[in-house]
Write a structure and sequence with these properties.
Length: about 220
């Protein structure tokens, strides 16, 4: 599997599909055993085996032989590789974003997730995002909220700084008539130009991807 210049592959995985072969490491199996609920165990098993299978196509290595390392904030990576990747899951769906030579993050959320949109936005969004969401009609609010939430989560995951980077320190677009982009990062209006965002609705899920590279192109692939 090859990636062209500036290309991002976003793999969509239905974890309710036929059980995949087990390529997990001992550490991953330990994490799997710590899940209490059946759905959580299945989603972890399927998504992490899919990750190994997918990355093996780019790296020409056996899935079971891939060795993941973790940053200080727990983001996995493969040492001495140009391949950058990120994994996210919601309910039974997972997404795996892959690119070369650029920090990347991906997030997926079920639109059926029950949340208090305005309360969460007031707590986590920047003031401009919060005020804008308050003006959205009730029928469109969940779509606007999850557009904003997944784009912000994707950016945070791409940075790899965990919860140390506040969600209200940057601003993204999220209305249907706006371009998909980061408007501001902290007080640096130039920093946002380094990033490309993508957003896609798939069935009843919302997917967002953030890449620290200008003019990235995005291709969605079914696993």
């Amino acid at each position: 599997m090859k990636l062209s210049n500036n290309n991002v592959h976003i793999w969509v995985v239905d974890t309710n599909c036929k059980a995949l072969p087990n390529y997990l490491s001992a550490a991953e199996m330990k994490r799997w055993n710590n899940f209490y609920f059946t759905q959580g165990k299945q989603t972890f098993y399927q998504s992490h085996n899919a990750l190994r299978l997918i990355l093996s196509q780019y790296l020409s290595e056996k899935p079971s032989e891939l060795e993941f390392q973790l940053t200080s904030f727990g983001k996995p990576f493969i040492k001495n590789s140009r391949i950058q990747f990120n994994l996210s899951h919601s309910d039974s769906m997972a997404v795996i974003a892959v690119t070369e030579d650029a920090e990347i993050g991906v997030d997926i959320e079920s639109l059926d997730r029950k949340v208090e949109y305005d309360d969460l936005a007031k707590r986590y969004f920047c003031e401009k995002e919060y005020q804008k969401l308050l003006q959205v009609s009730t029928s469109q609010k969940r779509y606007a909220f999850f557009n904003c939430w997944t784009r912000k989560e994707a950016f945070i995951k791409a940075l790899g700084d965990g919860l140390s980077y506040p969600l209200n320190d940057f601003e993204v677009t999220f209305l249907s008539n706006e371009p998909v982009q980061i408007n501001r990062i902290k007080n640096n209006i130039e920093a946002q130009k380094q990033w490309t965002l993508d957003n896609k609705s798939l069935d009843n899920y919302n997917i967002a991807t953030a890449v620290k590279r200008q003019n990235s192109s995005f291709e969605y692939l079914m696993f």
